[in-house]
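Q: I have 475 residues here and want to know how they pack in 3D. Can you give me a structure?
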Amino acid sequence: MALRKPQVATDAFIKLMAWKYGNTLDSLLAKFPTKTFDTSDDYTWNVICPSEKNYSLLYAEDESGTQISAGGSMIGENQAPFVLVFEEDWTHRGATIVGSLNEVYQFVVIDEPIFRGNTTAYRVYLSGGNTEGIDSQYLLPGEKFSFEANYVADDLSREVGEGSGSTHTQLRNEFSTVRDRRKVGGKMIDDKCAVGLPLVDDKGNVKVVTRWMLYVDWEFERGFKDMKNRALAYGVSNRNINGEYMDYDVNGRVVKKSAGLYQQLEMGNTIYVNEFNLKVLERALLDLCSGKVEYNNRQFTLITGDAGAMDFHKAIQQETQGWSQLTLDNSSVNMIQKTTSPYHQNSLSAGYQFTQWKSPMGLIINVLVDQSYNDPVRNKITMADGTLAYSHRMDIMDMGTSEQQNIFKCLVKSLPERRGYQAGPFGNPFTGELNNMNASYDEDSAVAHKIATLGICVMDPTRTVSIIPNVLRPI
């Protein structure tokens, strides 16, 4: 008997899963090119930091080392020095820096930075002829500071400054390897199932098949696809701060788990909310775009669950209440249509759903529902109304362009997704083979194995926004 072509050699199952389960991360990433690496070593990339940014003050202290608190006396009177402490080394001796009231209070850095473990301290004084000092409320933790200029004498000046330009930071990720198996009896080679399984062909036509092994293959592929999707989406790196892996498999070999999409998004713009509203979304996207993205290129896709899509619709509905366009002529947007019903010969249906919001400043937001957000098995936390909290989550991801992708799946050239078999002496239902001359064991059965090595890369997490219900905030 000739071998049957294994079902996974076609894309029938991929199409069927997309048809049955809708959009998932895997199907979304499949629309974009995949990055293939020569080896399974860690992959790294550099992220360019902004040329100019704000730096949050950890705390300020006077010359005696006493931390400055609210309600204290004026600080820096008659140009008396005091100290500003930050998490990083970002400015230099001779620089003028400013806080929130940048035309009122300007600070000159007196000395080279003083490093205190993981923090950096700068001795400063108030410039601009200010002899009255600064109110302590402008020197509290969280106050934002930025570089202003290097002012020097107009004659016989000495060098000052370090230049202004973009720096970079290096990010790193590794590949995860997942594996699964499925065992069936040898008799199943010709078994039929009472319930047909719909398969989608290349032209989109649905064909119902009744072979039991097709159903087994379907379940095997579905489970493996879900496993890969969870690894790509929810994977959490198991490398500790010393670069060591803490997990081992049954053979004592190191297990590597790569950071998935959502762990990498945590380095971007994350907003926790009790209730979604458009102002939160617009403000986040405007911060993302201002000075960086042209007005004609500010179109985003908001990925969410069913509950999030409903939140989006209701928020727009509330925003547009009273707009004449919605009440002027209902028939023009088909909000009320004719329908059929046994209850009345003149039955009507009414309704609409907002799936796009066009905000000022060129912002256009479209909704895409990812069914994994609605998974009640993996997502267990619920809101007060009983809906899944994760289904309310919203992620806006800049996927990039075909020339410069921002988010993409990673594979290894020498390690494609593989499938292998073990079979007894009388047949392999997965391939249709009979009378196996090289049996793996004496039992009349067959086992299919699958393995895949994969990863995901978010080149620049700052080009993403996540709006998450507060109940999902880690304690």
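Q: Anything worth noting?
A: The chain has three domains: 7-47+171-259+415-452, 55-149, 269-322+336-408+459-472. Helices lie at 12-21, 25-29, 212-234, 261-265, 278-289, 306-319, 324-327.
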